[in-house]
Design brief:
The protein has 371 residues and is an alpha/beta fold. The protein has 13 helices and 17 strands. It has a seven-stranded parallel sheet with strand order 7-8-9-10-11-12-13. A four-stranded antiparallel sheet has the order 4-3-2-17, with helices on both faces.
């Protein structure tokens, strides 16, 4: 059963974080996110733009995503007959880059298709390898090492199976040494968000002594070749994030031995169809993958849960409980993590949660409809 989109509604919401989140890019205290609702025959599907408020992670930010979704991607989808959601990404492929804006509409179409078939989203995308997903947690750069250690202890007590800590020059080797001294046996990884260059290879080699699961994206967002060079000097596996925007780039990175692990983010690759292709390329090569996070609200978080049920998502991802980020989420019930660090997969149609429309309306700061 195909579908034809007859209406697209965009809304921008503003929500303060429970605690600031700092990376090598800077500190975030409030999120401005765009939600996309696509409708066909009276049924709606929802997607979330995962871009940040500034063009630091990649070229996208809230304002650019609004323009791309409203003026370019959205109009291309309206009224076009689709046989299935897997075709949606091809319809906007002429737009260079801007995967997060395009991906929000693409994931909304998968949610729509799942609802039209009265199926859970994870089944619609071909997932279902597991009924609960293992969860890790991402901890930003803190004001002090004692503050970081306290935060890690809190997350371990909450049951999270893996700790990811953000690093940057000046907040790396000695800080990780303190973490390892306090927590010698936890699953620990470091995320640099492109904060280093190949000239830092000797310094990054010092991280090998801490038995990290991986070092995520130490070099620039477009540096697959240099990542291959630095991986050859490290015992610790490199995980690529920003570098991988397509299955083709994943294939290149694996062929060059630039990484041993890949982080898949729905927005970064433009939606479920390309995420599945990246997953399949990695699985064929024996490279494990996991689901990265972008400080999503409930819709994006629910989509990440569905994605994480694909077979090769064998490492704990960044999908964590709603309460870690929000005083109140836009979905009901909120996403919760069990004491053993897992999230159960919901069998309700679509992404599996109800929307809290009263709260959603209260945090909406802009809206527009295309029809």
């Amino acid at each position: 059963m195909g579908f034809k989109i007859d209406r697209i509604r965009l809304r921008q919401i503003s929500m303060p974080l429970v605690h600031f989140f700092e990376t090598s890019f800077g500190r975030t205290t409030e999120r401005h996110m765009i939600l996309a609702e696509v409708s066909s025959s009276g049924v709606s599907g929802w997607g979330e733009v995962t871009a940040g408020e500034n063009p630091f992670y990649n070229e996208e930010w809230t304002e650019s995503a609004w323009r791309i979704a409203r003026d370019y991607a959205g109009p291309r989808l309206l009224g076009h007959p689709f046989e299935n959601a897997a075709q949606v990404g091809e319809r906007t492929a002429h737009i260079r880059g801007h995967n997060m804006a395009r991906g929000a509409l693409e994931t909304a179409c998968w949610d729509l298709e799942a609802r039209l078939h009265n199926r859970p989203l994870y089944q619609q995308i071909g997932g279902g390898a597991r009924k609960e997903i293992p969860c890790g947690v991402s901890i930003g750069i803190q004001n002090s090492v004692p503050e970081l250690l306290k935060k890690i202890q809190t997350e371990i007590e909450a049951g999270y199976q893996r700790i990811k800590m953000k690093i940057k020059p000046g907040w790396d080797v000695e800080v990780i040494r303190e973490v390892r001294r306090e927590f010698p046996s936890i699953k620990l990884m470091a995320d640099a968000n492109s904060a280093y260059t190949l000239a830092d290879a000797d310094h990054l080699q010092k991280l090998d002594e801490f038995f990290l699961m991986m070092i995520e994206q130490p070099l620039a967002h477009d540096e697959i070749i240099d990542h291959a060079a630095i991986q050859a000097r490290l015992q610790t596996p490199i995980c690529l994030d920003e570098c991988i925007r397509s299955a083709h780039q994943a294939e290149q990175a694996i062929r060059m031995r630039a990484c041993g692990i890949i982080n898949i983010k729905l927005g970064r690759v433009g939606g479920f169809a390309e995420a599945r292709r990246v997953h399949d390329v990695a699985q064929k090569a024996g490279v494990p993958v996991w689901c990265g996070g972008m400080l999503e609200a409930g819709i994006g978080r629910a989509h990440n849960i569905a994605l994480s049920t694909l077979e090769n998502f064998v490492l704990p991802g960044d999908v964590s409980a709603s309460k870690r980020y929000w005083k109140r989420d836009i979905i009901d019930p909120w996403v919760e993590v069990s004491p053993r660090g897992t999230i159960g997969v919901n069998d309700a149609p679509g992404f599996g949660y109800n929307l809290d429309m009263e709260f959603l309306d209260s945090v909406t700061v802009r809206r527009e409809e295309l029809h």
